[in-house]
Amino acid sequence: KQEVTQIPAALSVPEGENLVLNCSFTDSAIYNLQWFRQDPGKGLTSLLLIQSSQREQTSGRLNASLDKSSGRSTLYIAASQPGDSATYLCAVNRDDKIIFGKGTRLHILP
Amino acid sequence: DADVTQTPRNRITKTGKRIMLECSQTKGHDRMYWYRQDPGLGLRLIYYSFDVKDINKGEISDGYSVSRQAQAKFSLSLESAIPNQTALYFCATSDVWEQFFGPGTRLTVL
Q1: Where are the alpha helices (DSSP H) in B51-94?
Q2: Cys staple from B21: which of A54, A63, A81, B76, with CB 3.0 to 4.6 Å?
Q3: Dist CA B102 CA B33 (whole Å)
Q4: Alpha carbons A94 and B12: distance in angstroms, whole number
Q5: Given an 8 Å threshold on Cβ–Cβ distance, is A45 in contact with B101?
Q6: Is B43's CB within 8 Å of A46's CB?
């Protein structure tokens, strides 16, 4: 059974710092991995989608990497801003089943 | 206009009542999903549908039913609501690879 883990559960960093969020999964046979952002009480906004054949994707200050063999993905946020404060979730897709991690709650300190 | 809409956005009801949550999408996707989100438990899949004639149970389908009225519409019903169904409910659509979420319905069962 696929399990997705995100560590740490919460993270606070000063504004301007670069940071890395981690996502690990137990079954490497995945179609793709997707990173989402969720603001409190709101829906999920897709940030980046990495296909299984890809190693990384970039969008603005965000870079996501995928290492299927080790069952890991990272989300790198450069030059963090207070507006980046949110919960970040990763989800893996395999056999049309999408399994979510529980998220990392990020707080950027002004 | 939003690509995935959910109604109602908030609902308070009493134990034993029948509740229907509705989801509509304009993305033209065949795949639609219902999730619930609970603090500490993350997102869990309730039901999913890959086309109008296809309905599948997810991880936690007990106590719920769904109807796929059209490609664009997927509704979730709680036949007899109970307090532990209090949660944030999300509808999502997919183009096979990437998921897109609605804004969520906050349901409280008293």
Answers
A1: none
A2: B76
A3: 10
A4: 35
A5: yes
A6: no
